[in-house]
Design goal:
Layout (H helix, E strand, L loop, with lengths): L3 E9 L4 H18 L3 E8 L5 E8 L2 H10 L1 H11 E9 L4 H8 L4 E5 L6
Parallel strand pairs: 4-5
Antiparallel strand pairs: 1-3, 1-4, 2-3
Helix pairs in contact: 1-3
Length: about 120
């Protein structure tokens, strides 16, 4: 299983919903333009508009690493100004390079290896 799935969650900072949505749109635009290995990059907002979850699917670990590189600045701005309490769950068999990259992040990352399924 080479595909990598990600679920990223964050809290939207108080009073920053409009700016958060604008920065999310920038992230999506960059991903559309620069990430051919990104198969899914869908942002969801909670009914009370205080939390966001992103559902992501990548062709491979390398595609996820490219995505992180392409969005580095846009995500830095997002988390410096508009969001907090960021956590990430990675599903699949990440490469050694992706695992090493994940260790350097200052966010809560959990990795689930595939067990079985359809």
């Amino acid at each position: 299983m080479s595909k990598i799935q990600v679920s990223a969650k964050m809290k939207i900072n108080d009073g920053m919903l409009k700016e958060f949505k604008q920065q999310a749109a920038k992230c999506i635009s960059i991903a559309k333009e620069k990430d051919p290995g990104t198969l899914q990059y869908d942002w969801f907002i909670s009914s009370n508009k205080t939390n966001c979850e992103i559902r992501e699917t990548y062709e491979s670990s390398e595609a996820l690493l490219a995505h992180v590189s392409n969005l580095r600045e846009a995500l830095r701005i997002l988390f410096e100004k508009f969001a907090s309490d960021h956590s990430v769950v990675i599903y699949g068999e990440p490469s050694a390079e992706l695992l090493e990259n994940a260790k350097t992040r200052r966010i809560d990352i959990t990795i689930f290896s595939f067990l079985q399924g359809l």
